[in-house]
Amino acid sequence: MNKTENQMLIIFGASGDLTARKLIPAIFNLYKDGQLPKNYVILGVSRSDLSDVEFRKKVVVESPYLKDELEKEADSFIKTFTDKLFYEDLGKDYDTDYIQLAKRISDLNTSHQTEHNHIFYLSTPPNLYEVVAKNLHDQGLSKEVKGWKRLIVEKPFGYSLETAKNLNNALHRYFEESQIYRIDHYLGKETVQNLLVTRFANSIFEPLWNRNYIHHVEITNAETVGVEKRGGYYDKSGALRDMFQSHLLQIVALVVMEPPIGADADEIRNEKVKALKSLRIMRDSKTLRKNTIRAQYMASVIDGKKIRGYREEPDVDPKSITETYAAIKFFVDNWRWADVPFYVRTAKRMPTKVTEIVIHFTSPHHQIFKDSEMANKDNKLIIRIQPDEGILIKFGVKVPGQGFKVERANLDFYYSSLVENHVMEAYERLLLDAMQGDATLYARADEVEAAWAFVDPILDYWKNGKGVKMYGYSAGVWGPQNEDDLMEGHGMWRNPGENLADDPGFCVLS
Length: 510
Ligand code: BG6
Prior knowledge:
By secondary structure, the chain is an alpha/beta fold. It has 14 helices and 17 strands.
C-alpha cells in the first residue's frame, strides 16, 4: 500500500456546495477507513464570514450529506474528525494578498506537524483558478522547498481549446505540471478503471480488440435528471462541454488506447494522449452535419408528474440553443481502429440513469446457420459503468431441439458479487491518490488539450454553422426521433434498461 504522508488540505471555495456534498464526506470516509495520516488538517478558505466552529457545523455536524453517516458513529469519534477542520475568511475577494492565509497555514503546519505538505483544492468557479494560483505563488506557497505542494482543479477545465491552453499556460507560470491534478470524477469510478484491467489483464479480449473483429463501438451516458439548479452554468456549457469533452472522451481514450508499457501514471497517460490525438477531427460542415446531432428536452409528463422543458428551467434563456443531448459519430485514425465507427451520446432527462460501453463484434465471416438470423445476434461485450455495474457478453447458443436454431445468451458478471469491503466513492479514491502523489487517474494538460481539439470544431459548427438543427425530445424518452439516423446501416442505439441484462425495449409497465 502507498504511504500517505502527514499533510494539510486547503480547500478554496469551502463554503460552496461541492465541499459539503462531496469533499468532506469523502474525507470523512477516508478517516473512517483509517486512511488519513496521523497528522492531518483541513483548512477551508472562502469569502464567507465563518469561524472554525461554524465551518465544522456547516460541513460536518449539521451537514445533510453526512447525517446518516454521523448517526452511526460515537460523538468522540466525530469530534476527533471535526477537530481537524479549520476555516479562514479571505474577505471580499479571492484576488487579495494571501499574507494572512500564508500565516494561518504556517501556524497550523507548526501546531499540527503537517510537514509543509500541502494540497490546494480549487473548488471555486474556474475563472478564479489563475488568480488563486498566482496569489499562492506570490506568497511562496507553491514552492517545494520544504515539503511538497499540489494543486487540484475541478472541471470545467477551459471552455474551448484556446481557453484550456491559456489556463494551462497560466497555471504553469505558478506550478509545475507534476504538481497539478485535474480531477475528472469518472476516472475515480471503479468500473472505469476496470476497463484497463479488462483489456490488459486478460488475454481473451485484447486479441479481438481491433478493426478485424470489432464492427462498431457505442457509448451511452444517460441521466434522468434535468439541469436541476445549475441552469445558469449549464446554459453556457451544454452536454458536449459538460460531459463529452471530459468524462466521455476519457472513457473513449481507455477503450482506444494501446497497451502501456507499465502502470505508471505517465505510461498510461502517454497512451491516452496518443489515443485522443488519433480521433479524426471533423472540420468541414458536410461531415459535421452528417455525424453530429444535438437536441434539447421538452416539457412532458412522467409518472403523472409535469416535467419542465429545458427552456423553462430557472436561469436558462427561454430562447436557448444549448444542447442537453449530444450524439457524435467519429472515427479513429490509427492502425488498430481504421474504419471502425464510434458512436457516443450523452443526455439529460432520459428514461433511466445509465452509462455503458457496447463493443459490437463483427459477424462470423462464413455463415453456417443461415436460417437463424445470425446478423441480429452478433456478439456484444457490454461494459456497464453505472448502475448495476458489471460486464455482459452476448453470444449465440443452440436452441434445444431439431435443426440449428441459434439464440443469444448472456454471460454476465456483476461487481456486487465481489464487493465485501467498502468500495471507495470516486472522490474518495481520487483524493487519496492525490494525497499519495499518484496522478494516474488525473488528466494531464496535453490530454485535456487533445480532447478540446476534437470538440472545438463541433462546438463551432453548432454555434456558427448554417442551418444547424436543434432537435427536441420529450423529457423521459431516448432522445430525438432521428437519433438512429446517425447509425447508418448499424441498426439502432442499444437503449439500455435499469439492469445490465435488460434488452433494448425493456420497460416496466407498473
Ligand atoms: C458532472 C456534470 O461532471 O457529472 C453533471 O457536470 C452530471 O452535469 C454529472 O450530472 C454526472 O456524474 P455521475 O457520476 O452522476 O454520472
